[in-house]
């Protein structure tokens, strides 16, 4: 369909649209160009024939000048076919030719129109201004037998200005078409980039949420399963307790996974499922870790903890959860200290620290995405999160969250 429509567009517009579509512009003329060129050729011939008939009725004009005038007019009609390739050169050449030959007036007008379509106004102003300045001299030397001197000058000036105005209108219309096309292309590109960015942010949010929700439970499973593997002769009560923790952790992980999958399928977070954790859930989180065999000391010194915004409390919960998970994997058997302080107007500070582990710790795979995700949670809200080893060989995570 585009190939068929291209033949009826101006070549300049068609080449620009080809470049927009990703294909190289073709310089060959379209069917529309050939039709317009043929019409301009006929118009130049028609004006030349009319001027030739006027020359035949002028007895004061020598026969040699009349023949020379018509020869120049015929040659100028032939160069109309070059108007698209060399519009400025043709228009400049037609200024002296038009001054010497009345039958080339049609070609002069066509050249002036082509110049106005394909070149900036400064070139049109110079050529048209020169032609208008030569009109009084031309008609003084070769007066028109049918019209008065001032009348023929005014008629020629109006005709030339009309041709220039028409050409500038065509040029502005083409530029507007290309401008609208360019703006539409930029809008499509920006919309595609916004969509890609939204998809990327959504994927990052989903990955961060799944890591925060699910990483804690499988770590408990891994720790207790490893303990059972290393101590197959453990007392029955200890084995039963570890199996209960494994069962409960697996159940909670499956429940969290079902909720996340349900949200993804629905495409809307909604209000279904269990509520998101807040600062009040730290006691339950610490108790859960203690049941798994961890040593955790929790110190909450928060003024009016019930007034903590939900988003701030949820981020603080995730920080503690991720820090406990990392301590369980990389420093088993150590006592983890969790300190939460702050108040309204002063911000909320979360500090989780663990000493170095005793002896060699088995390698536990980890990608560090949890701490990266926590940083992505804290930074956009105006908070900060720092983590790293301590001088004694331990590890600490310190987060400061805004609380207006």
Automatic annotation (TrEMBL):
Record-listed E.C. numbers: 2.7.13.3
Residue span, Signal transduction histidine kinase subgroup 3 dimerisation and phosphoacceptor domain: 203-267
One Gene Ontology cellular component annotation held by this UniProt entry: membrane
Transmembrane segments: 35-55, 88-116, 147-169
Domain of life: Bacteria
UniProt entry tagged with the keyword Transferase: yes
Alphabetical keyword list: ATP-binding, Kinase, Membrane, Nucleotide-binding, Phosphoprotein, Transferase, Transmembrane, Transmembrane helix, Two-component regulatory system
Catalysed transformations (reactions): ATP + protein L-histidine = ADP + protein N-phospho-L-histidine
GO MF annotations in UniProt: ATP binding; phosphorelay sensor kinase activity; protein dimerization activity
Pfam families: HATPase_c (PF02518), HisKA_3 (PF07730)
Domain Histidine kinase/HSP90-like ATPase: 315-402
Protein name: histidine kinase
Organism expressing this protein natively: Streptomyces mexicanus
């Amino acid at each position: 369909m585009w190939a068929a429509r291209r033949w009826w567009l101006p070549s300049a517009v068609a080449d620009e649209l080809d470049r927009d579509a990703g294909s190289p512009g073709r310089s060959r003329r379209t069917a529309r160009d050939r039709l317009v060129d043929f019409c301009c050729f006929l118009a130049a011939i028609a004006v030349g024939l009319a001027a030739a008939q006027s020359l035949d009725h002028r007895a004061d004009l020598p026969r040699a000048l009349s023949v020379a005038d018509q020869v120049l007019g015929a040659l100028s009609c032939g160069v109309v076919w070059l108007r698209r390739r060399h519009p400025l050169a043709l228009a400049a050449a037609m200024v002296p030719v038009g001054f010497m030959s009345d039958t080339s007036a049609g070609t002069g007008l066509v050249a002036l129109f082509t110049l106005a379509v394909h070149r900036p106004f400064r070139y049109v102003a110079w050529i048209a201004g020169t032609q208008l300045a030569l009109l009084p001299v031309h008609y003084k030397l070769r007066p028109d037998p049918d019209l008065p001197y001032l009348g023929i000058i005014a008629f020629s000036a109006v005709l030339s200005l009309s041709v220039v105005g028409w050409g500038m209108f065509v040029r502005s219309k083409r530029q507007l078409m290309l401008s609208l096309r360019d703006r539409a292309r930029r809008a499509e590109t920006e919309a595609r980039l916004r969509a890609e960015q939204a998809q990327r942010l959504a994927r990052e949010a989903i990955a961060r949420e799944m890591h925060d929700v699910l990483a804690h439970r499988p770590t408990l499973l891994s720790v207790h399963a490893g303990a059972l593997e290393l101590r197959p002769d453990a007392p029955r009560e200890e084995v039963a307790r570890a199996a209960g923790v494994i069962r409960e952790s697996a159940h909670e992980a499956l429940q969290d996974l079902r909720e996340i999958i349900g949200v993804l399928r629905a495409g809307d977070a909604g209000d279904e499922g269990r509520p998101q954790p807040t600062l009040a859930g730290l006691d339950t989180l610490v108790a859960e870790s203690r049941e798994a065999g961890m040593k955790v000391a929790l110190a909450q010194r928060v003024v009016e903890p019930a007034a903590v915004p939900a988003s701030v409390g949820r981020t603080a919960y995730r920080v503690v959860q991720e820090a406990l998970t990392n301590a369980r994997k990389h420093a088993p058997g150590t006592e983890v200290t969790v300190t939460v302080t702050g108040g309204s107007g002063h911000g909320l500070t979360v500090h989780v620290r663990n000493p170095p582990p005793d002896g060699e710790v088995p390698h536990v795979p980890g990608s560090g995405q949890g701490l990266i995700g926590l940083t992505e949670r804290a930074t956009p809200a105006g908070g900060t999160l720092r983590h790293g080893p301590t001088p004694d060989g331990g590890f600490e995570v310190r987060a400061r969250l805004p609380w207006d």
